[in-house]
Amino acid sequence: MSSWASLLRQLADLDPADFDPAEFSDEQLRETMPLVQVGINRLAAVLTRTVAAAEARQVHRADGMVTMKGWLTGHCRISGRAAGDLVRDGRRLAELPLLAAAFADGAVSPAHVAVVTAAVTPARTVVAAANEIDLATTDAVLTEAARALGPEDTAKAARRWVAGVDPDGALDDAAGLPRMFRMAVSAGGRIYLSGHVDQVGGETMHTALEALMNADRPVGDLRTYGERMGAALVELARRALMSGELPTVRGAAAQVRVSIDWMALCAERAAPGVVGGELPFAGPITPETARRLACDAGVVRVLTGPAGLPIDVGREQRTASAAIRRGIEFRDGHCVFAGCTAPAAWCDVHHVVHWAHGGPTSCDNGALLCERHHTAVHEGGFRIARETGTAVWHTYRPDGSEILSRTPRYPLRL
Ligand SMILES: [Zn+2]
Ligand SMILES: [Zn+2]
């Protein structure tokens, strides 16, 4: 085995405690960072070459995997996207020897390589050759850019090459572009979205999202465009589920299902780090989120006892009946959170006193809250209270102070 193989073993055996950057001088810190990046680049190049050799020999088949990408995601525990990039880089670097050499000596990073290999596709290479732009020149020009520039500017150089080879974008995979969309759950409970669609598909999505974004624009909304798009995407899905028009799943209506830990639900305040329930796709949720979903969010819930066994299934009694909901909608008109005018159709019926604590499902104990403010109340520590016998609501911050809306809420007159 080469010295590289023994280096990798040594690296695995090193004790992280032997390395304490806090003890470094400022100068040493400045020297260390680029050095480590070069090391990462060189190791990434080794991985890419290893993947290329493994793919050429189809070693994944012995493990019952149809593709190298599938083997990498399973055995190296990397994302499908990262695995796809590795396979593609491995294949294309074989034809870009200068870039491969720059990568191998650590002068360029995996991000540089990815932007070049994504642009220099086999189809474009063929057209380039027909136009007498040879691959060796392409390799030289783009490698020079990658050595001198960051990945973003290298991508620009790659785009200029593409524009020269394929000015009308005819070779863009767009013609036969599959619509692709991925959702990945991170360990921290965030769901990452990625994908691409063709122009018509994108326009369809954008039109629907924009309609929802503009409908949900309260006065003084400070959210960014991206934040509003994200909220609209979730709302689009929520409405589709509520419409009942989606295809059934294994014979049952498509609905969000959640299992909720009964003990966490009943606790006044959960200890930090306690899990309150589980969503089948998105994973464990906090007790506060569990309480909100149990409150009224159009979900099917399974309450589980101490042994994790179901003790109560369904939503019938704890979700406001149509009559109760109509009454609450008539009284509140829209989300009752100070300053919010999200329409009733967007709102959950919140139990002011949670049913797990004996609060009834009634007009008196109900309040319209849009999803954002329902979340603020359950997970954000905000509180709402109604003046007895009126439709006047007050909203309090977690510190107990009242939020006084600049546009006062005029209660609907009965
Ligand atoms: Zn609630
Ligand atoms: Zn609201």
Topology:
Layout: H1 3-13, H2 26-56, H3 68-75, H4 80-93, H5 97-104, H6 110-119, H7 122-130, H8 135-148, H9 151-165, E1 180-185, E2 191-196, H10 199-215, H11 225-243, E3 257-261, H12 262-266, E4 277-279, E5 283-285, H13 287-296, E6 300-304, E7 310-313, H14 322-332, E8 347-351, E9 366-370, H15 371-379, E10 383-386, E11 393-396, E12 402-403
Parallel strand pairs: 3-6
Antiparallel strand pairs: 1-2, 3-4, 4-5, 6-7, 8-9, 10-11, 11-12
Helix pairs in contact: 2-4, 3-4, 4-6, 5-8, 6-9, 8-9, 10-11, 13-15
Bound molecules: zinc ion (2 copies).
Strand adjacency order, main sheet: 5-4-3-6-7
Order of helices and strands: HHHHHHHHHEEHHEHEEHEEHEEHEEE
The major β-sheet equals:
5 strands, mixed
- Percent helix among the residues? 40-55%
β-sheet strand percentage: 5-15%
Number of H- or I-type helical stretches: 15
What's the mean pLDDT score? 85
* pLDDT < 50 runs, ≥5 residues: 408-414
Q: Radius of gyration, Cα only, in angstroms?
A: 28 Å
Structural class: alpha+beta
Question: How many extended strands?
Answer: 12
Morphology call: elongated
- Which molecules are bound in this entry? zinc ion
Calculate the terminal CA-CA distance, rounded to whole Å: 85 Å
Overall structural domain count:
4
